[in-house]
Amino acid sequence: MGEKTGGPPRAGAGTGRPGSAGGDSRGPGAGRLLGWLFLLPALLVLGVLVAYPIGWTFVRSLFGARGWSDFSGLANYQDLFTDDDTFTALKNNLIWVLVVPALVTAIGLVFAVLTERVRFATAFKMIVFMPMAVSMLAAGITFRLVYDREPEKGAANAALVSVHDAFAEAAPYPGARPRPGSGLEPAGGGFATAAESPGGSVVMLPLVALADDKVPGRARPAAAPPAAPGQVTGVVWVDFGRGNTGRPGVIDPGERGLPGVKVEAVRGGRTVASATTAADGSFTLPERAAAAGPVQLRLAAANFEQAFRGYDWLGPNLITPAIIGAYVWMWAGFAMVLIAAGLAAIPRDALEAARVDGATEWQVFRRVTVPLLSPVLVVVLVTLVINVLKVFDLVYIISLGSSQKEANVLALQMYLASFGGGDNQGLGSAIGIVLFLLVLPAMLFNIRRFRRESK
C-alpha cells in the first residue's frame, strides 16, 4: 500500500511563520527598524528646522542685547510684560484672537449656506476665494490704497462720501471766513457781529477765503439793499477781487454776492428770526426781528461746515479695525470652502425631516445645520486662531508710518525688537517663545482631535 497523503503538516513546514522553512526569516524588530529608517530623514529635517531653533531661541532669550556675555535670566520676560510697545502688541493680539476667528468663521458659514441657494454658486465661490491667491504683501499694498485718506484716491472713503452726500446736504461755503476787521467774530462754528444792529440798519458782511469755483453759478454782482424802516437788511459777498484789488469792506465792481447763506437775528442768545440771502447776497430780516430792539446778526455754522471727507482709516484710532477688515477679506473664502464641503456632507434627510416637522428655515439652520457642522466649524476656528496669532506681514505693510505702534502685534514686535531698530535679540527671542507658548494649546487641541477621529 502507498503512503497516506493529505495529513497534517509537519511543525514549521510552510506555515509562513517567522523562522519556519519557506516563511519570513526577519526578526520581530526588523519591521520597526525599517520604519525608523524611513522616518529618519523627516526627523532630521524637523530637528534642524524646528527643534533646534526652538531650543536656541529659548537659550538666547536668557541673554541681553549685548549677546552671550550678557546673561540676564528671565529679565527679558519681565520686560515683555512691562514694556509699553510689547504690552500694546499683547493687547492687539488678544483683540485679534477674540474677534477675527469668530468673525471669519461666521462670514464663511453665511457664504457657504448662501452658495447652496444661488444659481451662480461656482462663480460666487471663485470670487470669494480669489483673495486667498493674493500674497499678504500684495494685499497690504492694495489696502493701503483702499484706505487712503483722500476720497479721490481711497475707495473706502470715496464710497462713504458718495453715500453720505446722497442723504445729507453739504454746506454751501465750507472754509470761508470773515474779512479781518469786518466786525464778525467766531461764534458756535459760525460767525456773529460784535455790535447789535437796530431797525433800519444795513449790515455789510464781507467774506474771504473762497475760491472762484466754490461760488455758485447763480451768484450775481453783490448789491447792498436799501435801508428799510424797522427792518434789518444787509449783504453777504466775497470781498476779494482778482489781483487783490479793491477796498476791504466795500463792494467793488466784479465782486459777487453769496446766495443761500442763512443769516440769523439773535437776541439774548436766542434766535428770533432768520433769512436767506438772494442771488446778489442781499437779505432782509422780518420786521419782528428788530421790533423789540437791536439784534446781533449771526451767520449760521451750517454755512461753513467742512464737507464730509470720510475717515482716517490708517490713523491711530482705526488702524487695527482696518487691518482686520483686510484680513477678513482674504480669509473669508478659506472658511467658506471648508464649511461648504462639510455642508455638502450633511444628510439631507435630517434637514427635510426637520422641515416636515414644521421647523422654520432659521430653526433648521440653528438646530440642525450648525450642530452637524460643528466639527468643521471647530477646525476652521482653531486654524484661524493659530493663523492670527502669527499675523505679521499684513500689519507691517498697512501700518507703515506713525500708526504702526497702535497696530502692533507680537510677531511684528518680535521683528522690531530684534532687527527693526530695537537691536535686542534677547527680547525678540523672549517674544518668540511667548508666541510659541500661545500657539501650542491650539496645536495640542488639533492633535488630540485628530487622534480621537482616527480611533
Describe the structure.
The protein has about 450 residues and is an alpha+beta fold. Among the domains are: about 85-155 and about 315-425, MetI-like fold (Orthogonal Bundle), CATH 1.10.3720.10; about 175-305, no CATH class. Helices cover about 50% and strands about 10% of the residues. It has helices at about 30-60, 75-80, 85-115, 120-130, 135-145, 155-165, 290, 320-345, 350-355, 360-390, 395-400, 410-420, 425-455; strands at about 175-180, 185, 190-195, 200-210, 235-240, 260-265, 270-275, 280-285, 295-300. The strands form 2 sheets. A 5-stranded antiparallel β-sheet has the order 2-3-9-6-7. It has a 4-stranded mixed β-sheet with strand order 1-4-5-8, with no helix packed on it. The longest helix is centred in the N-terminal third of the chain and has 32 residues, at about 85-115. It starts with about 30 loop residues before the first helix and ends with a helix. Residues about 10-25 have low confidence and may be disordered.
Give me the CATH fold name of one domain.
Answer: MetI-like fold
Shape: elongated
CATH architecture of one domain: Orthogonal Bundle
Category by helix and strand content:
alpha+beta
Radius of gyration: 38 Å
Number of strand segments = 9
Estimated share of beta-strand residues: 5-15%
Biggest sheet, spatial arrangement of strands: 2-3-9-6-7
**Number of helices in the DSSP assignment:** 13
User: Which regions have little confidence, pLDDT < 50, spanning 5+ residues?
Assistant: 11-23
CATH class of one domain: Mainly Alpha
> Mean pLDDT, as a whole number?
86
CATH superfamily of one domain: MetI-like
Largest β-sheet summary: 5 strands, antiparallel
Q: Give the terminus-to-terminus CA distance.
A: 59 Å
